[in-house]
Known about the structure:
Elements: E1 3-4, H1 8-11, H2 17-22, H3 25-28, E2 40-44, H4 70-82, E3 87-91, H5 101-110, E4 114-119, H6 126-134, E5 138-144, H7 150-157, H8 161-175, E6 179-185, H9 193-203, E7 208-213, H10 219-222, H11 224-227, H12 231-247, E8 251-252, H13 257-272, E9 294-297, E10 302-304, E11 312-313, E12 315-316, H14 322-328, H15 330-337, H16 363-370, H17 382-385
Parallel strand pairs: 1-11, 2-3, 2-9, 3-4, 4-5, 5-6, 6-7, 7-8
Antiparallel strand pairs: 9-10, 10-12
Helix pairs in contact: 4-5, 6-8, 12-13
Amino acid sequence: MVQYYNSVSSLLRYFPEALAREVTEETLFEPDPCMRTPRSVDISITGKCNLRCKTCYYADDMVARRNLPTKRWLTVMDELGSIGVMNVSLSGGEPMTRKDIYQIIERLVQNRMRFSMNSNGMLFNQENSRFMAETKRCDSIQISIDGSSPEVHDNIRGSGSFTKAVQGISFLQEAGVDVTVRVTINRQNVHDLPNIFRLLYEQLKVASVSTNEAFPRGAAQCNLKELDMTPEDRRVAEGYCIEAAKHYPSLSAMAGPLALGNQLMEIKATLSNGQAPSSDYGGYLRACGGVFNKLDILHDGAVVPCNQLPQMVLGYVGETPLKTIWQESDGLRYMRARQKIPLYHLESCHDCQYQAFCTGGCPAMAYAATGKLTSRDPRSCYRALLGEDAEYVY
């Protein structure tokens, strides 16, 4: 359901009752320490895709939304350039399914912005790979690879997708485009992870690889029983990723098994040495800082804090200036104010010994799991990962 956040006073009801009693609108929603305009914008340029991946969060109700026409997107690029946006990330759906993708990128470049793209890689060839390189403004193309062979990858993403994705990587590399790869970890590919990392780094010579796990929304929610990892799967995935990172230093993760595995090792080491956490960043719902430097635009023109929160519509391109949305939207003020919520106010976290290390996890994941933005993400909960939480066990 689409929700609009237009009243600051009405937003207070979304905060924990104990916190709401302690604060006023003035203190909770005081001016934000963020840029006057967003530094970057993520655009889901289309809902159309040539695949039906089991792990796709941008599916179902999202695909039903109408794609904006070329003229509107060109106007959006002009507006982004006029307010000083520096970087645009194009995703979908599959961006390369748009017949006007050259026009959109050319207008983006004319407005002196840089861009990156998330793609399944299947539609890249020599011609469009050269186009990306010749813009001189393409930072990187991220391709999704979820298996070391067609047997694994195609089972998740569709028949024939592995061969074409690998070929797409080759075309882009030959053209001189920086290629990164995203691996979405799930039950179907956990035991293939060592082979995937060897393929990407040693055979395909990819410079940078990142990992995450399937987000329980869209197609991934429908396929959750098939994709969701067991506690043993998670331990195995963490072990594989941590070991691989020793050999491949550019292997990274913002969330999922590798990120959580590293954080758990740090926590255990700190506690075993009787030390305090190394920073004062933890203890609040601060995991997501995106609302301080970027906006997201969906393929129907809806402006949202994140494409994984499509129900939180802040406005529409062409109706409300993006600069106005950025500076005045109560929805963004709410998301920024979320970072002021201490974990001890949350019923699930008030007595947790790991509070000082924790930042609550992804708000979109928290919403998907609990129906509340002012809650922890249980998939990033250290107690749950360690089997110490009776409420939520992996």
